[in-house]
Protein 1
Amino acid sequence: MKNLSENIQYIGVDDTDIDLFEGQYVVPAGMAYNSFLIQDEKIAVTDTVDFRKVADWEANLEKALAGRKPDYLIIHHLEPDHAGGITRFVELYPEVTIVASAKAFAMLPQFMELPAETKKLAVKDGDTLSLGMHTLQFFTAPMVHWPEVIFSFEQSEKVLFSADAFGKFGVYDADPDDWACEARRYYFNIVGKYGAQVQAVLKKVAPLGVQTICPLHGPVLAENLEYYLGKYNTWSSYVPEDKGVLIAFTSIYGHTAKAAEVLAKELETAGVEKVVVSDLARSDMAEVLEDAFRYDRMVVMAPTYDAGVFPVMEEFLNHLKSKNYSNRKVGVVENGSWAPMAAKKMTEALSAMKKITLCETTVSIKSALNADSTAALKQLAKELV
Ligand SMILES: Cc1cc2nc3c(=O)[nH]c(=O)nc-3n(C[C@H](O)[C@H](O)[C@H](O)COP(=O)(O)O)c2cc1C
Ligand SMILES: [Fe+2]
Ligand SMILES: [Fe+2]
């Protein structure tokens, strides 16, 4: 779906040659920077795009405008993946009024210098802006994903412009049936820390009767909205989405990897709903983090390294902490050849997270599995079933 309706047109751009989104996320299916044109007595443009794609966006904008001039530029989110075209837009249309939160206007000069005479309209929670038949109502959405974020709701067509919320990795025309996987990876890695703030804004928009959601990334959502709202409600409340065990391991010589396999078999044989085994050094860590949040149980397995824990596991645990990983049951398996320390380090890191229930059994492997450590691994498996 390119155009939403007669009056709301898509003018965003797909980015299929970006190597890493936000400096760290692989996006094999590309990335969309969404922007829309609302044409009525007054004309509003919602957001711009990343610097990388401003020229393409400008072409889309001019074509859709067909000679008319826009009155407003609505900035829902000032992050550079959406704000790259603001300077160019004001150059093209110096008469335009920029609409954003007061926080966005405070931050804007850090990113760009606009002419002093540029008109600005700061909007607060609940404010409305009439375009004719169409009216935009604004809602602050602080920390979904930055402090200056606003949502807007177009009242006549019941369209919610939801900033980064409901966004996903991948292009605009992505298959909606495949939404959850990349939307979940996007959510937990990019917005995941701010579950409470997402919950707050979901409550604000609940009574509006939203019929279409226009996020800043990924496809427009126009059908089956309960599904998407339900997913966001689950994710933002830190409740596990599915029953299952993620085994996140790392290994230098292969013995911890072997133990991960043995544990997975044990869990599968015992009837665990879903077992996912991920080698941290060879996986997209953002994907492993997504699975950690998706399932209700996790086992972390790592060798000792210079009296600490192997670096990629340390990094994984840091990511989990920073994204507010909580409310899950976790088992710990270490390996070490002379003075194993990994379990202590992993347990410390997990203990700094909220509502983590550690399994009673911690498994310590001395170089390779033997009868004792295999028995301990089986005991751990029992605790996880
Ligand atoms: C650079 C380096 C540092 C290590 N530091 C420790 C250590 O401090 N204490 C220890 O018990 N083992 C240490 N080890 C040994 C491994 O933790 C141990 O051999 C373990 O069994 C490896 O498990 P894997 O077969 O899954 O790779 C170190 C290994 C390497 C390569
Ligand atoms: Fe963002
Ligand atoms: Fe974004």
Note: Residues 251-256, 303-307, 335-340, 367 surround flavin mononucleotide (ligand 1) (CB under 6 Å).
Protein 2
Amino acid sequence: MAHVTPSDLTSLLGGITLQGVYKQLRQHEAAPRSLSNRRRWVEPADVRRLLEGRDFTYPHLNIAFQIVKGGTGKTSLAYALATRASHYGVRVLAIDFDQQGNLTRSFNVDARERPVWLHVVRDRLDPRECIIEVSETLHLLPSNLNNSRLDIEVTSRASNLRDMLRDKLETIRSSYDLVVMDCPPAINKMNTAVTCGADLIIIPVNPDPYAIDGLDFTLAELDRIKVEFKVRFDHQVVWNRYDARERLGMVYMHELAKSPTRAAHLLPVVIRTDTSVKNAIFQAKSVFDLPKRSAIQDDIDQFTREILGLNQWKEDKQAGVA
Ligand SMILES: Nc1ncnc2c1ncn2[C@@H]1O[C@H](COP(=O)(O)OP(=O)(O)O)[C@@H](O)[C@H]1O
Ligand SMILES: [Mg+2]
């Protein structure tokens, strides 16, 4: 599996040569692994040692991907973030709440016979019983069609939506830095419970008018949840499937940025349309495992750095703040 490369680290650490990265790795008693003479990568645990040695604090966040519109990239970006963050040595739990189980399948996991979140809610199953280890730093709580009953169960139990997620995750939460949650495109009780238990909601939008409608609808719902349940969480909007050749893409982007409340929450990264997303799914791999370096690897890397706070950390370091 591909990971963070020594040259990724030179760009992240800034003002340091490749030799400098090797030297720092040696100081942490680590060495890059090689796939071939030309492709080297650094173990997640070694990336972590290196970054923590430079005073980077790994975040502790529950992140949910939500928007009522389907097909904007919730699952693809949840998968991308979970995978890429794990390359950086972040301990990730990915939770699939969508009965379609697309996130589960992205990890090449067949969970048809596995316990899922429905069993956590209905049968009080310990979430540990559901979790599958995808890699050392990446665990998955999968989904399957059983979760179609989830909302009925949550409703019939008159559950405490506000605290449900944090309560259910309590026994395992300290084992992870990030909990990355993929949700179905719906306004329902379970999504409300996920929102209440999230620190950050990421809303992927595409450059088309329907996605912007979906965004406004979702933002209104998030505001409603904040008021009704007296909870606090942040939200960020990310452009996905951007294609510079489509002139209208730019038009919709300007449209979105015109509203100051929307613009304030727009992540400063754009994820381009790239056929390697589909190629990777077809091969049951991450785009980082494909032999050719693609534009989307850079976009996902930037997206992940932004969410982890690595870009801000780099800026602060360069400005001498940290
Ligand atoms: N940046 C991208 N480039 C190319 N295809 C993409 C990109 N993002 C998503 N897709 C494709 O778009 C489709 C819908 O994405 P998905 O993540 O399943 O959306 P959602 O979970 O919001 O319904 C999938 O077939 C996925 O492979
Ligand atoms: Mg999806």
Note: The pocket of magnesium ion (ligand 2) is lined by residues 74-75, 98, 102 (CB under 6 Å).
